[in-house]
Amino acid sequence: MKAALKTADGRFEITDVEMPVIPSGDFVLARVRVAGICGTDLRHWNKAEPELEHHIVGHELSGEVIEVGDDVTRFKPGDRVVIETVMGDGVCDYCKVQRYNICEHLYDVRTKFVSRAYGEFVCGPEDKFYKLPDHVSFEEAALIDTFSVCLHAHHIGQVSVNQKVVVIGAGPIGLGQLQLAKSAGADVLIADLVDSSLDLAKELGADVVVNGSREDLVARAMEFAGGRGADICFECAGGHSMPKTLPLATKVVRRGGKVVLVGGFDQGEVTIPLEWQRIQMSEIQILPSASFAYHDIYPEQGMVLELLSRGKLNASKLITHRFDLDEINEAFEAAEAKEKTGAVFVAINIS
């Protein structure tokens, strides 16, 4: 099959590799139709990382079932599906209670099977596949992973009616967080540095938008939240922005408020000075959120698919650019240069 492999300099090379094969009776083989680019992918873009060299990566994908194992009962060849890529070892204490998103072997397992979106075929266990309704496109379905990350953070933050919510970052995660908070009945201020992203946020229902390069976010947030500060702030920028955005997040929330960390950190130790005395004296909660798994008895990816299929989440407005697999380097360049290109979610047609 054709796939994009990571190179020594962190870009991609299109080449032919062996197709995955069904290893056991409960596995499904699917042809990938559409994959997406998220913030995690961008943090690894154009960076020399020997551990990823010659690997297939990518974790936002939808496709079509090609073959099923002998024990598979819910799918057949030809079914349109979205594939969940958060997959633990299935045997640890966390996996046993459906918290596989914090499984110690999460990345070892997921990258061996389902987290290989930038190749023509992918193979995984039946319970990681969800059948798509006919009216949900492959492109829209590729955003379900993103929205599932948002829903997990939404559950951790416990957003409720009439709360004042601040979202820092208006990329796909931030715009998903915005939509979920609005659907819960909250008022939302969203901040970013890219005007085109903020224009889209307005279309999706943001009550207030703030360009942090021109406006004082803390002052605007206090005005928005009646002088006390927001009930909850979702940090959705992550990466190299975190040394600025995390301190900001702790300043825009009220006493007793919550900061939910959704944007990802880079690997290794990261030093970010915070006003710890003020945070402690104000009992501000800092709540990490990692990927997604289950909420009570419900798989969060399945919940998002239902929300999307019923029109309660808008994925199509977030899709701004489309490329073919052969153009994957150009796709990443467009996604990275969002201030120039206006990119939000970049879709890659795989096959």
Automatic annotation (TrEMBL):
UniProt keywords (A-Z) are: Metal-binding, Oxidoreductase, Zinc
Quote the Pfam families the UniProt record gives.
Answer: ADH_N, ADH_zinc_N
Which stretches make up the Enoyl reductase (ER) domain?
10-346
Asked if the Swiss-Prot or TrEMBL record annotates the protein with the keyword Oxidoreductase, the reply is yes
- Show the Gene3D superfamilies listed in the entry: Medium-chain alcohol dehydrogenases, catalytic domain, NAD(P)-binding Rossmann-like Domain
GO MF, one example: oxidoreductase activity, acting on the CH-OH group of donors, NAD or NADP as acceptor
In the UniProt record, does the keyword Oxidoreductase occur?
yes
**Lineage top rank: taxon:** Bacteria
Query: Required co-factor?
Result: Zn(2+)
The record's family statement is: Belongs to the zinc-containing alcohol dehydrogenase family.
Q: This chain belongs to which protein, by name? A: Alcohol dehydrogenase
- Lineage, please? Bacteria, Pseudomonadati, Pseudomonadota, Alphaproteobacteria, Hyphomicrobiales
